[in-house]
Write a structure and sequence with these properties.
98 residues, alpha+beta, 5 helices, globular, disordered C terminus
Amino acid sequence: MSGLTFTDLPALSEAIEEYAPSVKLVALVLANETEATQSQLAETTLLPARTVREALAELKSAGVVESRPLIMDARQTLYSIATNDDATVQHRASLVAE
């Protein structure tokens, strides 16, 4: 399975073009992981938890990221890239299927 890049997701790339590199990294990891908790993102990106938290807040306020409670542990939140267009959903699904 190959990972997504910003060239694969032009709408995402355009939406976060002006953000800091840490915000872009969190968005790219979420695009590849489908969904993750804040601690999983911190572990994957090697960014401090505070930086991940701030990046998620910026992405969420921009409408790029969605969140929902983790069913197994309501104290945690799952984050994912907002799926506003069918092309992105289909592209991500095809990569997961490979």
